[in-house]
Amino acid sequence: MISNSAVELFQQRETPFYHYDLTLLKGTIDSVKSLAKQFDFDIHYAVKANSNERILQELRDAGFGADCVSGNEVKLAAEMGFPVDSILFAGVGKTDKEINLALELNIKAFNCESIQEVEVLNQLALAQDKVAEIALRINPNVDAKTHKYITTGLDENKFGINQIDLPEFILRLPEFSNVKLTGLHFHIGSQITDMKVFKGLCLRVNEIQNWFADNGVQIEHLNLGGGLGIDYNSPDKNSIPDFKTYFTIFSEFLERKANQKVHFELGRSIVGQCGSLISRVVFIKKGLNTSFAIVDAGMTELMRPALYQSYHQIDNLTSSGEEAVYDVVGPICESTDCFGKAVKLPETKRGDLIALRSAGAYGEVMTSRYNLRDQNEPLYTN
Ligand SMILES: *Cc1c(COP(=O)(O)O)cnc(C)c1O
Known about the structure:
By secondary structure, the chain is α/β, with parallel strands linked by helices.
């Protein structure tokens, strides 16, 4: 819930801007942290979900590691004080420059996604006279039952090494003198709300790690990635995701070997609900069948609806009039610049403040300056 005192602060500011509820963020972090401790799971925050420095500080102070998908994320995480031995580097297309930077910083491990990548990493590590720890990202061919643009664990996706390439990988492993395989990594998609999917993942992981054991490779680290979804439909009712059910599934179905470490890379589930995009209504335009509420935020501030048709709850923070139906759209010159069709809102007028909820993950990080947009500083409240 956005408090009245927060709305008073919003009134004094130029819109659009991101608002972060740090109390909710801290509450969410506490929930993850205490449950992870209970289950003996290790948490790495997926920096790409939100790399805002104020947010990163909270995650660093919580003692989480960092899961990065670019050289610049690795660099930022290190600069922000995440311990380098807790930084992981994933991604299908790591360039030599990015790999060299991560090697120089002595990060914990690389999540590698192809045999060619391991070859290149081996050469670059040799040149720096280092041994790089790797986890092999395996595409487990598990359907995450989420939007097709955010599914990553099917054979047809570009992510991870396919299982048919594993025998060749194992054969060639001794060649890679400057690479040490210590883990297996899986990340099958994002905004996963069907918990059965995670059970399916556990069962595949068990098979795969047994296959490695049968081929003489013992695995020290299992990394199950992220992907736990949030409730975009009821951000106030379910402001903190059900981490307990999520972790319980892994604890029940994952066959954990003696002394094996289990890691998660959570992004959206930690930061998604604490952020809202705050905007003002510029005009109300009556169409033939619909009324448009044209707001001053657009796909340039929150790209998710335009990118993968995602839903964000829209609240009018300053009206309590009678309900009416609006298409809530931004000012950008693209027809996909629409936050919601046929949205029920209290009677909405020029100047009203609008909140696009659940925008803490994959919101601010995807901001662009298309149409030469201004970028306003976020607001943080406790
Ligand atoms: C994006 C990503 C995550 C985080 O996903 P969420 O759905 O935000 O939890 C974790 N691991 C990898 C490798 C990723 O690319």
